[in-house]
């Protein structure tokens, strides 16, 4: 019911039918011991340039019945570093900055699952989870300590996480009063800023500092596109073609698509 689709801006959900992670990436980075399923593919990804280690990519890849997080160098010169290896589904990884050869990776791990029976004939699944932070040492290809919880109760979205241009803040989605809201939190901690109802945040990396997001007008099944500053000011509606649908600008969570 929650169909996969390609999204604008840096990160996507795409099953890439018939392709394995080996074919999607450059060289045999995963190996059969990591992702045995021949149909496994990259589900979410993010990229960054690091001063000491060059261009890197972090991704969630389908491994048998679940998804795990991997990190690779984009020139194919390094085998993958497996960040998670468990029975849970981890998704929407993003790079939150780097210091030397240490890279901060943030991702969502599912903690709960439910069914929305607003339309009993078509039950819609939704998930919530926690945002986790894991430090990865690219030089030694090892994890630095265990993962830690950065934020709790995050709602599953096509693009569940987005990081600002200077790697100081992250945007995610939480439920407030039965509606999905865009939230912003500094990597250094502190209070969370609620930007109001919305889905699929994407931080513009072109210098504007704006967060683009989707919102469904009441009773309308198509979605409108908006932009707002990370303090909730300067909100504007972004003009889109009249025939632009939900599927062309990103998938909202199942809960909001009833």
Using only CA atoms, what is the Rg?
A: 18 Å
In total, the number of strands is 16
Number of helices: 2
Q: How are strands sequenced across the largest beta sheet? A: 1-2-3-4
Largest sheet: 4 strands, antiparallel
Order of helices and strands: HEEEEEEEEEEEEEEEEH
Going by helix content, strand content and strand pairing, the class is mainly beta
In terms of DSSP E residues, the strand content is over 45%
Q: Could you explain the architecture of this structure?
A:
The protein has 258 residues and is mainly beta. The chain contains two helices and 16 strands. The longest helix is centred in the N-terminal third of the chain and has 4 residues. It is globular, with a radius of gyration of 18 Å. The N terminus and C terminus are likely disordered.
Précis, in short:
This protein has 258 residues and is mainly beta. It has helices at residues 21-24, 246-249; strands spanning 42-50, 54-63, 66-73, 81-82, 90-99, 102-116, 124-137, 142-155, 162-163, 169-176, 179-186, 193-197, 199-203, 211-215, 224-228, 236-238.
Sum up the structure in keywords.
258 residues; mainly beta; four-stranded antiparallel sheet; 2 helices; globular; disordered N terminus
What's the layout of helices and strands?
Layout: H1 21-24, E1 42-50, E2 54-63, E3 66-73, E4 81-82, E5 90-99, E6 102-116, E7 124-137, E8 142-155, E9 162-163, E10 169-176, E11 179-186, E12 193-197, E13 199-203, E14 211-215, E15 224-228, E16 236-238, H2 246-249
